[in-house]
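Escalated from tier 1: adenosine-5'-triphosphate holo job.
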Amino acid sequence: MVKFVTKDAKIPSLVLMFGGTFDPVHYGHLRSALELTQVLPVHKVHLIPCQLPAHRGEPNATAEQRLAMLRLAITNEAQLFADKRELQRAGPSWSVDTLESLRQDYGWQQPLAMVLGWDAFLGLPNWSRRERLLELAHLIVLTRPGQMHQGSDQVLQLLKEHQLPAGEALSASPAGQILRLSLPSGLEISATHIRKLLASNLSARYLLPDTVLNFISTEGLYKSN
Ligand code: ATP
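Tier 2 regenerated the structure:
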């Protein structure tokens, strides 16, 4: 059972990096980002669309369209911030470069964590400069309903070495630990499913905000050819 935090000015608060393709952003991302601010002492969540995903094919929507959808989705949520820093870099979006850039903004004392779903975490052994990631930030690995594949030996070893000891707070240090977390709502929603529905001319309503769906319709996104 996840406990909710009450705001306490004395607890150092976390800055979170929540990167993704967001093709399109959906309630699985949005509810996770919001609930992270309710169960951990979080100061700000940077939602960062990638320019070119490093580990998958090209997105359907352009980087600008994905950023626009994200902005529409998070209006009026003060702790959620649509961050376009990866769109200002050419080439593949390596998370390690994004964390270096956040470190430049926040300095080395700030507790900083990168958020990712279990599915994304399983691919971590193939990431660029992965040993640097944990020097730069903590990792928060979210359970993703429907995605329960076992980790490889490398992934399990990483968890063994870095998983947060019971009772210790992630915000007690700037970087270096891994927290596995099941958030209260745990929504089984994926952008793949939404794109498939739309390509089949079926409604994706209630899986993502209406404002985002309206944008998709106006821009003519995710139609089958
Ligand atoms: P796709 O289906 O196109 O692969 P996606 O729904 O997984 O997209 P991404 O933009 O690739 O969305 O995800 C960004 C990050 O958010 C990843 O770390 C992913 O694991 C996580 N994530 C996506 N959907 C959920 C969800 N429903 N619950 C928790 N985490 C999620």
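The CA atoms of residues 31 and 185 lie 8 Å apart.
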